[in-house]
Structure formats: structure tokens, C-alpha cells
Amino acid sequence: MLFGLVIPLALGALLTERSHHLGLGLGAPRRGALALALGLPATVLAMTVLVHGSEVETFYRGHGGAALQLSLGYLPAILQVEVCFRGVLLFGLLPRFGALLAIAVSVLPYGLIHLDKPIEEALGSILVGAALAAMALWCRSIWYGFLLHLIGAVILTLLARG
After folding, report:
1. CA max distance for the chain
2. Quick one: which of 23, 85, 110, 123 has the fewest CB in 10 Å?
3. Distance between CA 153 and CA 137 in Å, rounded?
4. pLDDT digits (tens, 9 = 90+) for 52-102
5. What is the dihedral of CA 144, 145, 147, 150, to 10 degrees?
6. What is the Cα–Cα distance from 22 to 94, expressed in whole angstroms?
7. d(CA 136, CA 106)
């Protein structure tokens, strides 16, 4: 939590004086609701396809717990990723680099942290990272993508267990 949440937020505070400039506010709730309405079916479909990957099912099969337990287990890591990469990094770089370059730079470390996962997920994280970054910019908030990210992780694990 120190390196994934506390330190990035402290660095982000040096970049801006307002949390909403880092995507930590609610942003545009109507856009967020639309993004969730469109993103949820896409997330379910993507996880259904991904779980059929050669290593994905085996990788996630051993993760135990019901949906709520899984959510609580995944929550700290996903919160750190979203705050660090899409909050501080993406929104922090946006004024200096513009949307496309800020998205590209924020996707790079996001993809790298997925290298310990099955290859299908590692490669897919590049596309998903770009989509979540674009969503964060469009909604002006990380929280809608955070919800989809968390839901996707739980669904993938539940599908892998059968």
C-alpha cells in the first residue's frame, strides 16, 4: 500500500492541488454510468473469452472464496493500480503530453505488472489498460474503470473455477 497508493498520491499532490485533477473525484457521473452500462457486458464477454486461454483457467482455478471475498481480496491491488497508473500517472501527464501519449505511457507499466500472469492476460492488459485509461479521461474519473476492473477480476476467477 505504501508504494502503490501512499507514495503515488503524495507525488500526485505535488502535481496538483485538487484531487479531481487526478481523476479521484466523481468526474462526469452520466458519462460514468454510460461507460459502466456499455463496459459491463464487454467485461463479461472478455472474461468469458479469456478464461478459455490455455493457462488462464489453471492460473485462477486455485483462488478460493465467494464473489464478495474475492472482491475484498482483489480490492487493495486494483485500487493501487487504478490510483497509481490511471490517477496519478495518466492524469498527471495529461496536461504536459496530451491524451494519446499520456494513455500510452500509463499503459506501459500496467502491462508490465501483468507479465507474471498467463500470456493471454498479459497481452490483453495492453488493450484493457488503454480502454480503462480512455474511459478515465472521458469520464474524468478513475472510479468507473476501477469498478469494471474489479468486476472483471472477480468474474474471471469465478469462471475459472467453473
Report:
1. 47
2. 123
3. 22
4. 987 988 888 877 788 999 999 999 999 989 998 999 899 989 988 999 999
5. 180
6. 10
7. 12
Residue 144 near residue 25, CB atoms below 8 Å: no
pLDDT tens digits for 125-159?
Answer: 999 999 999 999 999 999 999 999 999 999 999 99
Closest to 53 measured CA to CA, from 116, 117, 132: 117
Q: Scan for cell 495492453, then name that residue.
A: 126
Q: How many CB atoms lie within 10 A of CB 36?
A: 18
Eight-state DSSP code of residue 148: H
* Distance from the first to the final alpha carbon of the chain: 31
- Three cell numbers, residue 161: 473455477
Alpha carbons 52 and 59: distance in angstroms, whole number: 11
Burial code of 43-67, b = ≥16 C-beta within 10 A, e = fewer?
beebbeebbebeebbebbeebeeee
Residue 97: is it exposed, middle or buried by C-beta count within 10 angstroms (0-12/13-18/19+)?
middle
